[in-house]
Amino acid sequence: MGARVKEKPAIYVVGEGSYWLAHVPVLRGCIASGTTKDEAIANARRAFRAYLALLEARGVSIEHWKDLDADTFQVRDMPNDRIVPEDVGPMEEHELRDFLHQFEASRSALVSLVREISPE
Q1: pLDDT band at 17, cuts 50/70/90?
Q2: 12 has which bridge partners?
Q3: What domain count does the chain have?
Q4: Confidence at residue 4, expressed as pLDDT on a 0 to 100 scale
Q5: Which domain range does residue 28 map to?
Q6: Is residue 73 within 8 Å of 45, Cβ to Cβ?
Q7: Is residue 90 packed enough to be buried (19+ CB in 10 Å), middle (13-18) or exposed (0-12)?
Q8: d(CA 69, CA 78)
Q9: Which of 17, 49, 97, 112 sits between 20 and 30 A of 2, alpha carbons compared?
């Protein structure tokens, strides 16, 4: 698969009033919210670090993200069509493998939570 041009990772924000979302596409599924734009961005930076810790705890390799510092991610407005450049184009082999590992880790975490729910 063809390699994409690698830019500094970004956090994309969208919202208004007291509801903001911050999307970190370098780590698929990493999204945070906040009551202000700045709070959503700060929460996204924390979520990135927490998501990596969760993946690592679940046995998913974080090799491709370990050298990324969420505090240095650029902040950009979410495009009007809500399609960020990082989500366009074919996935590289490691991205597909990492996505499948993330999916399995999410599935495992969900199954663990469901097992704790009482029948009542």
Answers
A1: very high
A2: 23, 76
A3: 1
A4: 45
A5: 10-115
A6: yes
A7: exposed
A8: 21
A9: 49
Q: Give the mean pLDDT of the chain.
A: 86
% of the chain exceeding 70 in pLDDT:
95
Residue 15 β-bridge partners: 20
Report pLDDT for 6.
58
Q: Which residue has the tokens 């906040």?
A: 34
**Does a structural domain hold residue 4?**
no
Q: Is residue 7 a contact partner of residue 97, using CB atoms and an 8 Å limit?
A: no
- Do residues 26 and 13 touch, judged by C-beta distance below 8 A? no
The mean pLDDT of 63-84, rounded to a whole number, is: 93
Q: Is residue 57 part of a domain?
A: yes
Domain contains 2: no
| Residue 59 placed within a domain | yes
Q: Which CATH number goes with the domain that contains 69?
A: 3.30.160
